[in-house]
Write a structure and sequence with these properties.
The protein is mainly alpha-helical. Among the domains are: about 90 residues, 2-Layer Sandwich (GMP Synthetase, Chain A, domain 3), CATH 3.30.300; about 40 residues. Helices cover about 55% and strands about 10% of the residues. Strands 1-2-3 form a 3-stranded mixed sheet. A hairpin with a 2-residue loop joins strand 1 and strand 2. The chain is elongated and about 70 Å long. The termini are far apart.
Length: about 180
């Protein structure tokens, strides 16, 4: 006779015969997404052939989206019966461990967003009027990467060293792409 613990473990591990292996999918998320992403992105539901994932920071959300095809391929290989077609990611706010750091992060962001002294603002000549944030380059212009000083200042505000390094790599890739576009 089998022990109740063995029966429950088998049931939770495999589920009832013919049932989708959701427990194994969510339990194996760290292996499927990788330890770095799994620490900051949580798979929480399967709906309409899509895996729904919540990220604790927009940067991690972007990194997950960049690896979406590879992660989806691993899931499809391991769990073909789920017939997953997509991974949908949303920003879900801070994890409890990060909540304690939020006041410090908010203070740093406020300091970065504070207006510059008038002397510094007038010292930098503008070739065109300032554009609203997020509006992109003017017609006929290519996007410009932030200066190294601006980038380092923005990266310094990121509390997570691993995320900071990944964002630094993204900035380097952006600079490479802008340089390539300007050469054409």
């Amino acid at each position: 006779m089998k022990k109740a613990a063995e029966i429950l473990a088998r049931l939770l591990d495999k589920g009832p015969a013919g049932a989708p292996p959701f427990h194994a999918l969510f339990g194996g998320w760290q292996e499927l997404a990788g330890p770095s992403l799994a620490e900051h992105c949580r798979a929480y539901e399967v709906r309409h052939h899509s895996l729904l994932v919540e990220a604790d920071h927009p940067g991690w959300m972007q990194l997950l989206l960049m690896q979406k095809k590879a992660i989806l391929a691993r899931i499809r290989q391991r769990f073909p019966q789920l017939e997953l077609r997509d991974i949908r990611v949303r920003f879900g706010g801070a994890k409890p461990a990060m909540a304690a750091r939020q006041p410090a992060i908010a203070a740093r962001q406020a300091a970065l967003a504070a207006p510059k002294p008038a002397a510094a603002a007038s010292a930098a000549p503008h070739s065109s009027p300032p554009r609203p944030e997020g509006s992109g380059p003017a017609a006929g212009q290519t996007a410009a990467a932030p200066s190294s000083a601006e980038a380092e200042q923005a990266l310094a505000a990121v509390g997570d060293p691993e995320l900071r390094e990944k964002l630094r790599l993204l900035l380097q890739e952006l600079e490479r792409r802008i340089d390539t576009a300007e050469d054409k």
